[in-house]
Amino acid sequence: MTDRNTAESTNQREAARTRDTDPGVLTASLAELRHNPRLFLPFLLAGLAVSAINAIHRIDPIPTRHVETILEGNINVAFVGYPAGYRSSSLVLEPVLGLRLPYLLWGLGSYVFSLTILSVAGVLVISRVVDVEPTIDSWVGFGALVLAFDLVDRTLGSINALQEMGLLFGIPILAIWFLVFIRLFATPGLVVQGRSLGAAIYDSRRITRGHSGGIFVLILVIGLGNAVLGAIPIAGTALSTTLIGALHAAVIGVFVRQTSPISTGP
């Protein structure tokens, strides 16, 4: 009887992994947000805070890099791996390190604060969707993941060769970029569930197999939605963070909830 129950449980888990759940993830996420609009609140506050910091950086001596929007002819998939909005300006970290102490503290402090408030919003929404109580390890792990995603995104964005390469080399690089984000798509949700970063990455790679097409569509929806809302003058960052940030967090939570992986970390 035990062997039979174990086999049935295994078959159910395999069925959950292999069935095409991805098209339903977006619908379920929108329903989650519609039935619980308070999920928008953490990202509304985060969006307002990030917008205020960006506005201050436009008039202070902290070096920033302007990011072109769709209205300026730059169509991109604004997806950074963690729930966030579109950044029309980006802090350039390298020159900040050479500033005088007050500006150095303000520059690094505003950067850390922006990531922290986005991390808090992400954990609050994802934990609510997957119905778990986040632990200290979850908060720390999620923050570390957000920092890693952000630093990698900034590094790649600062390499001119990657931005200016033609289709011949650009398409393979873009394909690799999408594949990496598809495999890491569930990592933030798994960290909120209590896994270590290593186990979350391992399980994310495992549960996203068979769902690559659906996750690719989700990344396009989130990334293009960010880019479109981010192009709105003045309010773009706040709107994209509030709406698309909350949607991204809900999508991660719903996907993790549907796949219900059992941790088999390395």
Tell me what you see in this structure.
By secondary structure, the chain is mostly helical. The chain has one domain (24-259). The chain is 71% helix and 2% strand. It is built from twelve helices and two strands; from the N terminus they run H-H-H-E-E-H-H-H-H-H-H-H-H-H. A two-stranded antiparallel ribbon has the order 1-2. Helix 3 (40-57) runs antiparallel to helix 12 (236-259) and helix 8 (167-183) crosses helix 11 (212-230). The longest helix is centred in the middle third of the chain and has 30 residues, at 101-130. The protein is globular and about 50 Å long. The chain starts with a helix and ends in a 7-residue tail after the last helix. The model is unreliable at 1-23 and 261-266 (pLDDT under 50).
Structural class: mainly alpha
**Main sheet record:** 2 strands, antiparallel
| Sequence stretches where pLDDT stays below 50 over 5 or more residues | 1-23, 261-266
Distance between the termini: 30 Å
Please state the average pLDDT score: 83
Instruction: Give me the number of helical elements.
Output: 12
Work out the radius of gyration.
19 Å
SSE order, one letter for each helix or strand: HHHEEHHHHHHHHH
Largest sheet, order of strands side by side?
Answer: 1-2
Count of individual beta strands: 2
Helix content: over 70%
How many discrete structural domains?
1
Strand content: under 5%
